[in-house]
Amino acid sequence: MRKEQHHKGWNQIKTNDSWAIFKIMGEFVNGFEKMSAIGPCVSIFGSARTKENEDYYKLSVQIAKSVSEAGYGIITGGGPGIMEAGNKGAHLAGGTSVGLNIDLPFEQHDNPYIDGDKSLDFDYFFVRKVMFVKYSQGFVVMPGGFGTLDELFEAITLIQTNKIGTFPIILVGTDFWKGLIDWIKNTMLTAGNISPEDLDLIKLVDTADEVVEIIDAFYKGNTLSPNF
Fold it and tell me: Quick one: pLDDT at residue 142?
């Protein structure tokens, strides 16, 4: 009897998994349709816990404002902290301000600086991550936590393995990121787990001007288009 109940429960899980495909497809279709109409954008990542009075929040506002004035839209994860700062900078510059929101049990809520017609909601992290990579012409990575590192290393991996075209990946904040960069050079590279040219995929800066210079220099001879 227990064995039959166990099999029945397992079959129910498999049925639910099959139906989940349609919800996943729906998120992809909705995301592709909305994002493809927006135009060239730069994604800004960082901690949801950064407060408005902190230096990296203020710097994120300035970076987003400068990038917007250079002609790019801004995409963030749509929530508070660095995400809010990114959308705020775009809003102040009168630029395109996109929020890719995720349903989480804590931290996440829409910030008020996202354009009304450019706020997208996702249940699945992996669908949301596809939107970030596919429709971004650059990643600006501010200090953050596990989620920020997840986005950073996924983008590096996709470029390293030629799954997507190269685009600028810019880490902002030498004090925050230097330890990680040193570990990558002194441990990963020394162990032979990455190639020396892989280090060229990442730029480390401290100012909004440097961010804009790197993005503009990269796209002088390159076409702006979706990445895969």
Answer: 98
